[in-house]
Design goal:
Structural class: mainly alpha
Number of helices: 14
Bound molecules: tryptophan
Strand order of the largest sheet: 1-2-3
Number of domains: 2
Oligomer: single chain
CATH superfamily of the largest domain: HUPs
CATH topology of the largest domain: Rossmann fold
């Protein structure tokens, strides 16, 4: 098996906080499986996190190691996947600089993800230039590794589109096929809701269960979970749709028949929330126990984790450096070469 016959996968995570069950369902689980069938690069996107965390740089940098611990805890194997730190791969910043000339400000302002994020953050007209242009930096991340596949949530699809536009624009400009277009890989599983019933689990919304959660934290989160507000007495029929406990059982309980039986019983009436929550609690405790244990073991040797990151980052620099030299050669930026 040669490495060129394998797809190249690039994933990225902003390092604004440790990862949670939503990440696990949406992407981490898949990445653990994919590392056997692809050349996989995992980018700790601290530079991108800084674009909307001015003044909170310490939180961003502190979380680099937290996210790395999450990767290792869920089973990302540094011998199979390359974990690297975005800010420590200067080739990415250099490539961004060239790509920035190939996109207009108007186009960036039309990017639906950016538009929504600007709205959420209340930037209005005071948008940091680095924030507006982060799709270009993300395009540099993707193209520097010549990624063919990029696993993303649907909110990131505009980034892939923008990346491929830049690839075509660059290759057209230099009249050479230097950069490679990529395909998004969308998760097949539905998005995990927050424990409060909001559509998205997110640390900043306070409705997440962290991968490193303690048994008590898991139990408390399950206890707090939004169910069916109309299900007042055990004997009442209950609603499964929009009921977070059942959404979680769908996501985490592999015994589909068991889940179906619980749903039928709940709908009929006679099944109390506390009973279903107990089933879910046991399931989540069993899932997170080994992850938490591996995380603790790794946490005890931070030096070793940093060493994994150092090696991954060096490897990433080699790959990105190769692409960058091709890019510069295509543009004639080769003054000192003969
Ligand atoms: N934008 C992604 C996020 O918000 C993180 C990211 C940075 C990324 N660079 C990337 C994702 C490259 C995919 C590919 O989570």
């Amino acid at each position: 098996m040669t490495s060129t016959s394998l797809p190249t996968i690039l994933t990225g995570d902003r390092t604004t906080g440790p990862l949670h069950l939503g990440h696990y369902i949406g992407s981490l689980r898949a990445r653990v499986a994919l590392q056997h069938e692809a050349r996989q690069f995992l980018l700790l996107a601290d530079t991108q996190a800084l674009t909307d965390n001015v003044g909170r740089h310490q939180r961003v940098t502190a979380n680099v190691i937290e996210v790395a611990l999450d990767y290792l805890a869920v089973g990302i194997d540094p011998a199979k996947s390359t974990i690297c730190i975005q800010s420590q791969v200067p080739e990415l910043a250099e490539l961004s600089q060239y790509l920035l000339n190939l996109v207009t400000v108007a186009r960036l302002e039309r990017n639906p993800t950016i538009k929504e994020e600007i709205r959420l953050r209340g930037f209005e007209r005071d948008i940091p230039a680095g924030f507006l242009t982060y799709p270009v930096s993300q395009a540099a991340d993707i193209t520097a590794f010549k990624a063919t596949h990029v696993p993303v949530g649907d909110d990131q699809l505009p980034m892939i589109e923008q990346t491929n536009e830049l690839v075509r624009r660059f290759n057209h400009t230099v009249e050479r096929e230097v950069l490679v277009e990529c395909a998004p890989v969308l998760s097949a599983v539905p998005r995990l809701p927050g424990i409060d019933g909001k559509a998205k689990m997110s640390k900043s919304l306070g409705n997440a269960i962290a991968l490193g959660a303690t048994p008590d934290e898991i139990a408390q989160a399950v206890k707090d979970m939004y169910t069916d507000p109309g299900h007042l007495r055990v004997s009442d029929p209950g609603k499964v749709e929009g009921n977070v406990v059942f959404a979680f059982l769908d996501a985490f309980e592999p015994d589909v028949q068991k889940v179906d039986a619980l749903k039928a019983h709940y709908r009929r009436g006679g099944l109390g929330d506390s009973v279903v929550k107990q089933v879910l609690n046991e399931r989540l405790q069993a899932l997170l126990e080994p992850i938490r244990t591996r995380r603790r073991e790794r946490e005890a040797d931070r030096g070793e984790v940093l060493e994994v990151l150092r090696r991954g980052t060096l490897r990433a620099r080699e790959v990105a450096g190769q692409t960058l030299s091709e890019v510069k050669r295509a543009m004639g930026l080769t003054y000192f070469e003969h």
